Records
---
Amino acid sequence: MAETNRQIVLDRLPQGDKLAPEHFRLIETVCPTAGTGEVLLRTRYISLDAANRAWMQGATYRSALESGQVMAGGALAEVAVSNVPHLKVGDTVFGDTGWQDYAVVPGKRLSKLPAMEPITHLLSIYGVAGLTAYFGLLECGNPQAGETVVVSAAAGSVGSIAGQIAKIKGCKVVGIAGGAEKGRWLVEELGFDVALDYKGGGLRQQMKEAVPEGIDVYFDNTGGEIFETCLFAMKNFGRIACCGAVSQYDGAAPPHGPRGIPGLIVTKRLTLRGFVVMDFESQRDAALIELQGWVASGQLKVQEDIIEGLENTPAALIGLLNGENRGKRMVKVD
Amino acid sequence: MAETNRQIVLDRLPQGDKLAPEHFRLIETVCPTAGTGEVLLRTRYISLDAANRAWMQGATYRSALESGQVMAGGALAEVAVSNVPHLKVGDTVFGDTGWQDYAVVPGKRLSKLPAMEPITHLLSIYGVAGLTAYFGLLECGNPQAGETVVVSAAAGSVGSIAGQIAKIKGCKVVGIAGGAEKGRWLVEELGFDVALDYKGGGLRQQMKEAVPEGIDVYFDNTGGEIFETCLFAMKNFGRIACCGAVSQYDGAAPPHGPRGIPGLIVTKRLTLRGFVVMDFESQRDAALIELQGWVASGQLKVQEDIIEGLENTPAALIGLLNGENRGKRMVKVD
């Protein structure tokens, strides 16, 4: 099999500048060959996540990315050649393929995913996005019925699910998103109680009016000024689930953090907890069953934002960092 | 009883400036009279705490202080007149007397303390300081034997006890304090493994050398740059017990918080938890029994720093904010 393998290379790491198309380069190489214990994967849907940009800033829960390497990223992929007994040609897996048509991956890192229609749900609601929302909200936020939950980046892949789960749990749910149109969608389609527009100015005042009672649980996807605004609006004994900091990824590292830390943590007796979805691997199956039930009953709406063509992956990530997506963004490779 | 009552009044609230003697004024009034359900207390030992200064900045877990009022503060006091059945003349209580010779306090807020020698232990190890150290370290920090615990303001009333409890629990304990002399005391007298001198410069480098393995539990009394240094040195899944922020109380409010928040909370999966000792009221008796056992066995050394004379209370608080005390500072009123 000497097929062409298109690869998107991280040509140059951004150095405090915003991510741009010129940081990437599309090259064509020869399709690699799977060795002993390895599997050749054909990439089908590449997951786009704000975390992709964070990996360019330095080591996180994975090593920092380097210039010249194929851009890293997870994808739904089909097994094209298998040298391991537990996978056969045609199986669907989620793998750390990077942005390319084909990737060779150690078989032990892969497990077969169930058949599903649409298959893209394996990347959105039943993938990292859905599980991140589920565990972050329920394990770190621990919302109780009647409490007030605020979610930032609420129209994004994780936020849109976290907010809906909070509604299912009987909470008052406030979403923060950019623009009136996203806000209408959150309220009218997803059932959020209120949407705040961080691009509309006066977020503190909007918050005071929408949440005069204070916030019990804040699900933070953004960090930065939105985080600070919510911190000041927290109730005593409130919980902040720290999921990500998309406001901090694309550009120079901020010289300082939000005000009120640690003073407000003390006086309000807050708990802040950071998490990464892999930490909850042992609870994954139970979570998937619960998510499936909510989707089946119509309580949880799945929103996907599918871009066509591997060559459009850089633009799709840049757009995501600018907040242009609604729900889970992914790239259909061919 | 028309005795004179000396009172130290908060003459002028500091407005972003450092606390100074001219913020206070000593006046003489007539001793007040206890009404129905009230108790007249004679103040014996006034507790000095960094929190006294924080109360001047705005509402915390108590209302903000105002210019012209008697300076607030808790004290060990003797019942001089009792109009409630559960207290009699001569009983010792801990009350919110303020800085004055005599105070009238509702009887329902007071309970009789046990006889003890020295009585000052009721303000230090068996008072707010000891219980704050105990609950903050054990409930919020949850240190395990073999883990590395870092304590800031380690020579202070709370820090010196928190560090010793961490040693009792089998941890490696690193104290941060100002000056080589305090450091020697922490290591040689209290059994800390290492002391870092935040006034000596290069705290990050000192931390790297002392804690190459990273911090499991950070007991934060300071906030600010020391907090930031520890945040960057935390291990994955580390815990930060947020007890206070003495670096932030005396002067203008800082324009920004520590860097790395919330990014490092996410990638390191940290938990930060703020607390106030009153939150653990229901566990108080059990904690006191455990503390008494450690003191009796000599595992826990009690250090007190007693200043004589009500008139010296302002200077004693100013000195505490400048870090001149070692262990629990209090003022013996007469």
Note: The longest helix of chain B spans residues 128-141.
---
Amino acid sequence: MNFQPINIDSKFALFSEQWSPKVIAKVNDYLVKIGKLQGDFVWHKHEETDELFIVNKGILRVDFREGPVFLTKGQLLVVPKGVEHKTQADQECELIMFEPEKTLNTGNITCDITVEKLEWI
Amino acid sequence: MNFQPINIDSKFALFSEQWSPKVIAKVNDYLVKIGKLQGDFVWHKHEETDELFIVNKGILRVDFREGPVFLTKGQLLVVPKGVEHKTQADQECELIMFEPEKTLNTGNITCDITVEKLEWI
């Protein structure tokens, strides 16, 4: 066996596309994904799963129908299953996500920013 | 609904006990746990689950039978299920863990540092 630590910042340095989550690790049937966000996402929800967000850089706004939550580096938020939300960032934000491998980035919505097949980096 | 971001460093500031993981968030049936480590743990394995470690402060050594892996802040490691390992830190280390809620800190071993009931903070 060959165990290598994974440097999160080094993984972020490997890509520049926004709204295109990459996989950096797998824990059972859950994935650790990282993504770069800027601008506005689509309202969506995940009927089958909670979703964990940890901000690595920048400021992430997570909109809920009740209002926004702001996250900065070192803060995390669990979006409960079935709850509509939308991510937004004025400046580019780096986000770490933890969720079941079948989770689609746009949840119950399919559109041009839906990523069906995730890339490992 | 009331969504509050969770500040990881603020949660670490709430306790000082070592080898006593606390729960800070739940994602489906997985828990986000944080712990302070110093010294040597016990060799153990988790037959049923992988285990995700992310270092928040200090240097963590994870010993495997094949040799050690060193992790610093911003690095992660997945310990595969069934693989014997032991954590160690010369200076106090802050560790974030992600694993199923039924996961026992000492895995297949029960001893005086086994934590059966986890505290939420």
Note: Chain A has one domain: 22-115.
